[in-house]
Write a structure and sequence with these properties.
By secondary structure, the chain is α+β, with helices and mostly antiparallel strands. The chain has a domain of 75 residues. Helix content is 32%, strand content 19%. The chain is built from three helices and four strands. It starts with a helix and ends in a 15-residue tail after the last strand.
Length: 116
């Protein structure tokens, strides 16, 4: 006795294992930035710094106490690339207090002047 095609499909469908539901994707390609903003831990500002037009555009992440990351947009860098760099710099700043500051130049070391 031969089964009908309809019966074969049903039998085959029952033998397949269901795949687990896919995990929902992050709503942005920047999950650290998104979590930082969702947790209301601080602010992220993107724009020009008025007092120094030579810097161009910047991205700054800060909490209520510290400036965590301060990046200057590089020549030819897209906004997306700037946000990628902010994403990579923000996690170490939050977790390990490793801050990135491209805006403020480091202070030169203090040395004693030589007398002649």
């Amino acid at each position: 006795m031969e089964r009908s095609p309809r019966t074969r499909r049903r039998a085959r469908a029952r033998s397949l294992k269901r795949k687990p539901a896919p995990k929902p994707a992050a709503s942005t390609p920047w999950p650290t930035i998104e979590a930082f903003l969702d947790a209301e831990e601080g602010d992220i500002t993107i724009g020009a710094i008025g007092y120094n037009p030579s810097l161009g555009y910047t991205a700054v992440a800060s909490d209520e106490h510290n400036m965590l990351v301060a990046l200057v947009r590089r020549s030819g860098e897209t906004l997306h690339q700037l946000l990628d760099r902010l994403e990579r710099a923000l996690r170490p700043a939050i977790d390990d207090q490793v801050f990135t500051d491209e805006i403020n130049a480091p202070s030169p070391p203090i040395t004693k002047a030589r007398r002649r």
